[in-house]
Each structure stands twice: as C-alpha cells, then as structure tokens.
Specification:
Elements lengths: L1 H9 L3 H60 L4 H38 L3 H15 L5
Length: about 140
C-alpha cells in the first residue's frame, strides 16, 4: 500500500511533491506538539485528582469531628460521650494524615514533572529505526 503511494508521488510534478513534503513536516510538528499537550494535560489531571482526594479526606474528617461533637453535646448517655471522645481525635488525625499525604504526593508529582521528557521525540526515533529496517523512510 505504501509503495503504491510512493509510486503515485513519484509520478506527480515536482511542485506537488514539494508541497506534500512540506505538509508531512507540518503534520509531524503538530503531532509532536499534540503529544506534549496531552502529556501536560495528564499531569494536570493527576494534580486535580490529588486535590480531590484531599477534599474527600477532609470531608470525612469533618464528618467524624462533627459526629463526635454532636455525640458529646446532645446525648445523655455515657457510651455516646465515649464514642464522641473517640471520634474527635480520629477526625483530627485523619485531617492531619490527609494533608501530609497530599503534600507528599504533590512533591512526587512535581519531581516527576521536572524529570519529564516529552515522549514524542523518543517515539519518533523508534519509529524511524523500525521504518528504516523495512525500507520505509519518508
């Protein structure tokens, strides 16, 4: 299929061949740019996922603290006060844990972001090596 395409190109006038070569170069540049944009968007999605996880932890911690407070203040039973006194520190510990976890993940994401190299150039080199093995060099 590719050889038929090459024969068609070879039979075209020189101007059209040059135009096709320019279009191919332009497409390759756009593919590189798109790959880098996709990679950057993936990093942003990871950052947002980390923030959503932090908010979910905080939501749970606030619910535990509020439940503990309500159990202490609005109940006349001793066992409910014990449950409330247990829920308060658990909620506070969960809030602290979630914030520490969030900071560690953010540091990890930033480290990966700094070490990141766009994969599009690497994939292009691999593609060229494989294509040259089969004699398909553009």
């Amino acid at each position: 299929m590719f050889r038929i395409f090459l024969k068609k190109i070879e039979s075209m006038p020189v101007q059209e061949q040059d135009e096709i070569k320019k279009l191919r170069k332009k497409i390759k540049k756009l593919e590189k740019k798109n790959a880098e944009i996709r990679d950057e968007m993936a990093i942003q999605r990871t950052i947002f996922a980390n923030e959503r996880t932090l908010m979910a932890y905080f939501r749970t911690a606030i619910a535990l603290i509020a439940g503990g407070f309500a159990a202490i203040k609005f109940s006349q039973h001793v066992y409910m006060e014990l449950i409330g006194l247990t829920l308060l520190p658990i909620g506070i510990l969960l809030a602290v844990y979630s914030f520490v976890r969030y900071l560690n993940k953010q540091k990890l994401i930033q480290r990966h972001r700094q070490e990141y190299e766009p994969t599009s150039h690497h994939h292009e080199e691999l593609h060229e090596k494989q294509a040259s093995r089969y004699g398909n060099i553009d």
